[in-house]
Amino acid sequence: MDLAEIVSTFFRILPQALVSGVALGSVYALIAQGYYVTFTTTETLNFAQGEFLMVGALTSFSLMVLAGVPFLVALPAVVALMAAMGVVLERIAIRPLRQLLSVGWILSTVGTSVILRQFAEIYWGREQKRVPSIFGDVPLYLGNVGIFPQEVFIIVASLLTMGILLVFLKRSTFGKALQAVAFNPAAAGLMGINVRQMVVVSYIISSALAGIAGILIAPVIFAHAEMGALLGLKAFAAAIIGGIENPVGILLMGIGLGIAEFIVAGYNASFRDAATFLILILILAWRPQGLFERVTAEKV
Amino acid sequence: MHPSFWSRRIDAPIFSGVSVGGVILTLAATLALVIVPILVDNAYIMRIAQQIAFYTIAAIGLNVLVGYQGQVSLGHGGLFAVGAYGSALLATQTSISVWIAIAAGAALAGIVGALLALPTLRAKGPYLAMVTIAFSIIVFVVAQSWVGLTRGPEGIKNIPGPDLFGTTIRQLRTYAPFGDGGPAISGAVVYFWIVGLAALAVQLLANNLLAGRWGRTINAVRQSEVAAETVGVSVYRWKVGAFAFSAVLAGLSGAFFAHQDGYIVSDTFTFNKSVELLVYVILGGARTLFGPLIGTTVLVILPEFLKTISEYAFVPAWAKPILEHYLLFYGALLILFLIAMPEGMAGALKAIPGVKSLLPPTPTPTPRTATALAPAELVVGRARPTLVADDVKMYFGGVKAVDGVSLAIQPGTIHGLIGPNGSGKSTMVNVMTGVYRPTGGRVRLGDTVMNHLPPHSIAALGVTRTFQNIQLFKDLSVIDNVMMGYHLRMRYGFVDQLLRTRRARAEETAYRQRAMALLQFLDIAQLAEAEAQSLPYGHQRLVEIARALALEPAVLILDEPAAGINASEIDQVSEVIRRIRSAGVTILVIEHHMDLVMSVSDHVVALDYGKKIAEGTPAEIQANPRVIEAYLGDQDSFALPAEEPDAGTVELAGAVASPRPEATE
User: Fold this and answer.
1) So what's the pLDDT on residue A181?
2) Which of B17, B100, B110, B281 is the most exposed place for a label (fewest CB within 10 A)?
3) pLDDT (average), residues B588-593
4) A293 domain residue, yes or no
5) What is the phi/psi pair of residue B30, to 5°?
6) Within 10 A of B354 (CB to CB), how many other CB atoms are there?
7) In a domain, A291, yes or no
8) Nearest chain B Cα distance for residue A113, angstroms
């Protein structure tokens, strides 16, 4: 490929990459907000977030396809299941292990991800499940750029969810209590905030976001046991690059990453995933704190 | 057997200081590795034994990283794959010896590991974990998609085995190594000999490394990076080194895997491989010498065991698929062990009475007694230039923590630096020791400008420090903390440590003796074997001072040596400071505690709001109206204490100018 060809290919794939990238990227952002919520409150996060998403997606398959439950019933059911999983995760894999080797919680949540993948293979099998979109699968066209109605729904629903989350975190007493815990757990405790409960709540929120992301994305990519790992990891890449304590940065980088991925895929589909992580490694090499995070001096 | 015979040390040229028991156990293990397979000679069992052997090699390497050095890597499956593909491709595409291909595969993994570590090791904790996961996935994607090179899921076939007895070793062939009349031995047994002896060698060499200077240093880096820097350890270099070392072992393991069956496919090298290696280490016992071996043995057998069970009739149909998914058990065991048994199986074994005495004794025991160093011996042959700060500025965003301060610390004097909380004292220390890079101005030692030097280079020039919030290597013994202070002086190198040559042992013994003499100088020799974190605060301060003195510094900076200790301990500390001064060491004391500063200092500088407000003899400072005002405030602006209630003294005024402290641990 010479330069002219690279440039012309770029402009040929750009419009479609923008549309598909925003849809996928808003899912990354949604998952990554889950990292943000628990990381600010506890400096821990769920390495099994992608597997939570996968369980959410496959549960929506069981409910909607196998049991014929309508979407508006399946959604709260999945969210409730995720919330319960979040509570259990916090209790077993996070709380007892926050101090151990300083990385115990990383290992235990990675262990959780392995368990969930294996469980999904046993319970749902290895094959990919198709979850039909409630909006049908006839793409809409704008010129020669196609978009599925489900993708429009993904964008709208993700942005709406994130909007509600941020307003909740910034405005409600409850959200302020969470922020207080994030800023200084000891002081928050002295002010009468139940820190432990706040940590549990942050894990509930984080897991619920993964569940919503799962039910949104299932109709676009097939649901199967291995679907979550890459999504969770790319969302984490977005969170790191955007600054893990910066929800707006996360949103922007999530979408940016989605678009970048489709552009790379336009050149060579098989290196789409590798390219994302190469970008991640390079950005971390350049700015170990992420792009938008302020560098804070370590106090000794 | 008589215990003293068992633990008697032998002065061998390599493995110097090994105990009689160690030799006996090693010989027994070697013999068992050679003879037992001949007796068993079952292809299925030998294959499992081979797996245990080569996965143990990877697990030992990963334990160095995760257990001792404290970094998580979920990318070692990727490095394993690099070793496997590297060796397989060299053996199939070129005509070089398979032995060289295996070594090259390991080396390649080491290079890739270093290249991965160089840019990413500045990231920590979850970031590093994610980057290594990403690396695993990149390797898998490349293995899967770059079919031209790796043949993807179809796999590389007919990878030759290594040559031995003048012929190529294959699993299912039989050999007559002792001539046609001798016993016939299957290829499976021979390949096990190769990987089993390799694993044994790796275990022994790793034990050497971990027992010596290398192990002490990576342990220290894990426990306090900033303190490791101040004794002259380039933390970044050591972390990259530990990562590369463990990568070499992952690669070696992968290479042995590739030549086991002569066939590799990309599907083997998923992210799960990285998790498996980590599970071997954690379940076996991170930060134990034999944990990786134990963990790998149990966990390689476990899937086979589950498979066997699932074939029994009494197992209900629904349970069979569960038993086939062994990773489910790995995941569950990982969480269970992390919660209930974080020391792993090796930790549990160690708790059994008698087991500990079987473990190899340390080759260089701590001497029981020592004569205290004479003051004249404390610092030998070090030039004593003046430490100078010229118009130093340190801004954090808009906060001017230090704003144009100049100091000159004359050789052989005790210099006091005082000021209310937030006056910039600690920032000043951090700038002068390289922890912070100044926004403006110059710090120099004699004529050497130190502005852009990292702390370890400043330590090498002879400026070291203690910390306000004590930074000891908590899990190390007191004497090992002091031994870290000799880091820059020790000359024996990596190969000496790996083989534990006479030279390595002699040097270790000599410095241990000297460390003991130094502890005696500070009257804490009786604490030499105690774990640093078990000591009361005052003693911890003295250990920190001992560690700093081990560098034989030109300038010793004591950052609030009296913070948080009681009155009698304060007397002890000031007595120690005078004793050090009598040895000619230049000292800068940063302190709130007026009695202490005024009684030991020759010269005092007072700071307030980042500026120097007074300078002079202790008597002059005590009489200086600006100093009195800074400490007591004028009558109109009497402020309450602002921060740091733990400092043990009452502060009356002071703006908070320090950067946002790290969140509570």
Assistant:
1) 85
2) B100
3) 88
4) no
5) -65, -45
6) 6
7) no
8) 8
Backbone angles phi, psi at B398, to 5 degrees: -90, -5
B148 at interface of A, judged by CB pairs closer than 8 A: no
The answer to whether position A176 is within a domain reads: yes
List Cα–Cα distances, B227 to B230, B238, B472, B474, B590, in angstroms.
5, 14, 7, 11, 18
Residue A237 touches partner B, C-beta closer than 8 Å: yes
Q: Which of B72, B134, B325 sits opposite A118 (nearest CB)?
A: B325
> Of A2, A42, A55, A9, nearest to A207 (Cα)?
A55
Residue B620 and residue B632 in contact, taking contact as beta carbons nearer than 8 Å? no
Looking at the domain assignment, is residue A299 inside a domain?
A: no
The count of domains in chain A is: 1
B115/B112 Cα distance (integer angstroms): 5
Instruction: Look up tokens 């974080």; give the residue.
Output: B342
Interface of B with A in 391-410 (CB under 8 A): 396
Write down the domain spans for chain B.
18-273, 384-475+536-647
pTM over 0.80: yes
Could you tell me how far CA B640 lies from the centroid of its own chain? Answer: 43
pLDDT in tens, A252-263: 999 999 999 898
B179, with CB counted inside 10 A (0-12, 13-18, 19+), is exposed
The angle that helices B326-340 and B271-284 make with each other, rounded to 10 degrees, is 40
Q: DSSP class of residue B404? A: E
Residue B463: helix, strand or coil by DSSP? strand
Q: Lowest-confidence range among A273-277, B90-94, B96-100, B153-157?
A: A273-277
Helix A149-171 vs helix A195-217: angle between axes, to the nearest 10 degrees? 170
Residues in chain A: 300
Of B133, B436, B663, the CB nearest to A233: B133
Contact with chain A for residue B306, Cβ under 8 A: no
DSSP for B163-219, written as a single string: EETTEE--TT-EE-TT-TTS--EEHHHHHHHHHHHHHHHHHHHHHHHHHSHHHHHHH
Q: State the angle between helix axes of A195-217 and A173-183 in degrees (0 to 180), rounded to the nearest 10.
A: 110
Fold held by B384-475+536-647: Rossmann fold (3.40.50)
Tell me, what's the ipTM?
Answer: 0.90
Mention every residue, 6+ apart, whose C-beta is less than 8 A from residue A133. A148, A149, A150, A153, A219, A220
- CATH code at A119? 1.10.3470
Instruction: Select from B516, B652, B152 the least CA-distant residue to A270.
Output: B152
